[in-house]
Amino acid sequence: MSKFRKGDIVGRISYNKDVIFEITKIIKTSSNNEICILKGITERIVADSPPEDLEIMDKRIVSKKIKSIEDKIENRIQKCIKCEDYNIKNKNKMFYFFNNGKRGEIQKIYTGKILHLDGDRKYSEKAAKYYKSLGLQAIVKNVPENKQVMMVRTLLDRYNPDILILTGHDGMIRKGTDFNNVYNYRNSRHFINTVNEARKWEKTKGRNLAIFAGACQSYYEAIILAGANFASSPKRIMIDFIDPLIVAEKIAITDSNKYLRIEDIEEEIREGRAGVDGVGSLGKRIIMNNEK
Q1: Rounded CA gap, 191 and 43, in Å?
Q2: Is 64 within the bounds of a domain?
Q3: Which site in 62, 70, 181, 246 is 20 to 30 Å from 77, CA atoms measured?
Q4: % the chain with pLDDT above 70
């Protein structure tokens, strides 16, 4: 019987406890051994490990790691708020332009509407807070990776977004081999299938969705081939929790007559183009002028 329980916070000894994991499941193998299924606390990765390679993490270290993530998010929010490019206070509001002292043209600014499906509940909550702090239009739903394909059309119909973010946790089962085998990835096939469904919906609605999909070590090439504009992870590395959010926000605030390329955002992604890449997307920010 394992000394560990579901919900324990652990590190892998053989990896120098570089990533903090939560045990989500303990499975008995055919040889009556045990394997622990692990979910990253601060990284979007799923892994497995025999119990003998795990060690309970010190609560102070866990708290410090989590606080560092929260501080990073807050620092980025404050940076964005101060940046003129974001016009945080000007989103989705009306402005009156005066001519000879009379109120004339009304200008309305709309940022792109985001629908974000995240397989992790805690990440979903952090993402919703992040978008709200930036004044972005965003609906965030906690939907397990394997159920996103079943839910996406209903949610697209309900919210009719400009931007779709599909993420959660992923990881290679046999790292460093079988790069082109979709079953060597824990959740990539779910992201691929969900992107396919979203593009089918798009055709029936005459919409032009911008899509990001993937998580740590995801099957980048197949996700892009399915129709994503941006995806992870070209070098099969871990991505930051905030990387998909940065892609969403950048598309949302970029003018609709401009094309957002990975070159425009790669310096803001933790691992640059090794972690996130793509074919790019038109921006979704619209400025409307009306006579009053």
Answers
A1: 17
A2: no
A3: 62
A4: 89
